[in-house]
């Protein structure tokens, strides 16, 4: 049996940009992607703490160290600049493997969207 579990989570980042005219997705600072074990084009769920919106999209690699979190395309209607969101990815795995799997959890500085060292 396979189940879906949390693979990665970037907990509480602030939307720094919204680009309605882009074709879609969320742009994420590459430092945060690496820390959360996310890859470009990976499907993610975005949970907006300001308005309760939830949506699925995919990740675009942002400039490393920029702190940029940009909602693109139609997703820009679901989160405004200044909103705080959680970015979550999931993975399918064997039930027994899932019992011991440890997700990559990242808790950046919400004001700067940069890793806390």
Short description:
The protein is mainly beta.
List keywords for this structure.
117 residues, eight-stranded mixed β-sheet
Shape: globular
Oligomer: single chain
The CATH top-level class label: Mainly Beta
Measure the end-to-end span.
39 Å
The helix count comes to 2
Specify Rg, calculated over alpha carbons: 14 Å
Residue-averaged pLDDT, rounded? 97
Q: Label the structural class.
A: mainly beta
Low-confidence stretches: none
- Strand tally: 8
CATH topology: Barwin-like endoglucanases
Helix percentage range: 10-25%
Total domain units: 1
CATH architecture: Beta Barrel
Largest sheet: spatial strand order: 2-6-3-5-4-7-1-8
**Major sheet description:** 8 strands, mixed
Listing every helix as H and every strand as E from the N terminus to the C terminus, the arrangement reads EEEHEEEEHE
Strand content: over 45%
Description:
With 117 residues, the protein is mostly beta strands. It has a single domain, classed as Barwin-like endoglucanases (Beta Barrel). It has 2 helices and 8 strands. The chain has helices at 30-36, 95-100; strands at residues 2-14, 17-19, 25-29, 43-48, 54-62, 69-72, 84-94, 104-106. Strands 2-6-3-5-4-7-1-8 form an 8-stranded mixed sheet. β4 (43-48) and β5 (54-62) form a beta hairpin.
